[in-house]
Design brief:
- This protein is mainly alpha-helical.
- Helix content is 83%, strand content 0%.
- It is flat, with a radius of gyration of 17 Å.
- Helix 2 packs antiparallel against helix 3 and helix 3 packs antiparallel against helix 6.
Amino acid sequence: MLYKLRNLTSKYFEVPIAKILIKLRFSPNLITLTGLALAIVSGYLISDTTIQNHFVYAAIILLISGILDLFDGAVARLTNNVTQLGAFIDSFSDRIGEIAVFLGITIYFGLNDNLVGSSLTLAALGGSLTVSYIRARAEALKIKCETGLVARPERIILLFIGILAANWWPPMLTIVMGILTVTTIITSFQRFLIVVKHISKST
């Protein structure tokens, strides 16, 4: 859903900031790995209940990580440095970052004996990885498959809202995990049908 908005804002938002990052000598891979490191830190902060307002810090760091994910590709294109290795590192880092965040949430629920929350988090992680996997397999088949109810940008926003709100009302995190579980399953089916339809037309 947000891919359309991203295309509209690219000229006025992504490109100017990407040019600043280029002047600061940030390479695409450095931006990607910085975003990954921040996602891992966010996952740790979610799980560490000994830190006051840990959810607030985790949410902010996760948002910064998600924002950085917008710019590695833009920097690569502007510097004519688009490579298969860079694309692979970007995709790999996105998956590891998501796993780190969901792992942090799972640990938090485990420490608070929230079996429902833990179960929903694992289901949401599975759904998220399935959404990304279908897109990757589709692209390998030369099929564009970016549409769906909740792609990565929407997942980051939902996680940000759930983690931030949990600082004042912890049940919100369980609710968001439930929302992510349902919406990632729906998105997986949407993308599955897109790929099946495309293959059926070409055979």
